[in-house]
Target: NAD(+) diphosphatase
Amino acid sequence: MRIPRSASQDSAVRPIPLAGTGGIDRDAHHRLDEAWLGAAWSHPSTRVFVVSGGQALVEETADGRTELVMMPSFDAPVTEAHRYFLGSDAEGVRYFALQKDALPGRMDDVARPAGLREAAALLSPRDGQLMVHAVALENWQRMHRFCSRCGERTVIAAAGHIRRCPACGAEHYPRTDPAVIMLVLDEEDRALLGRQVHWPKGRFSTLAGFVEPGESIEQAVVREVAEEAGIAVGEVEYVASQPWPFPSSLMLGFVAHATSTEVRVDGDEIEEARWFSREDLRAAMDAGDVLPPYGVSIAAVLIEQWYGKPLATTPW
Ligand SMILES: [Zn+2]
Model:
């Protein structure tokens, strides 16, 4: 099977959640301009939301959509908050996120806190992009408060995109950990799906793993498939990527062509792996032996593009 590169963002099957810009221009060149940022923050059209512990407030609209709860900056709780500039939309509206220790309370019962895994499946591409950017920055900010060179406490800069060390002058940038996720196919066009030891019964998905230091992403695909399932891989094709800030991954999606078929799982990370034809997968899902994939994950997109039509998916 060949999956065209153009399948990445505008797939006929399913767009990849969180992977598009949602019409937001990050305007990175303004991040060091404090005067510009101050004016943008104060503008009445600017919209702000709070991010805390990977969650934000969402609400359902009258017509059934789910949106981030946003407010003008003059309503925003600024005390001791970290302020992230996230970008602008085509109408010139600027968006900021505030990192707080808790989400703000509201007088109504319409708004509710949601984590990114849940929200990603519900929000518009614009709100999904704003939230994934804010959550990724928050995860990094919370875990990198001290200088990795000298140990001094660092301070936020560049509207949330740099931490500076006042002692040694080091600048620290947000961390992203590349991980590969791959649908392995054999010569009969069967797909290899595995289950991790800690997953619920019936949960099968694509294999995945982190890229190691000094390794290309193609090498990582070959190594991970060999380690986890004992399968040799030849050709490797990149398909698409997905930001996955849990806490800081970037999932790089591939189709990998196997040159062997005898499965030997590591038993450590992967408990079981099986080859599925399309008919096998449909029958196993119909019988309840295999659970539908999580719709928010790029794994569902990789599996569906092979399967050829939409699959039932489950929310996180
Ligand atoms: Zn330092």
Residues 147, 149-150, 152, 165, 167-168, 170 surround zinc ion (CB under 6 Å). Helices lie at 7-10, 34-42, 116-120, 125-143, 217-229, 278-286, 298-307. Confidence is low (pLDDT under 50) at residues 3-12.
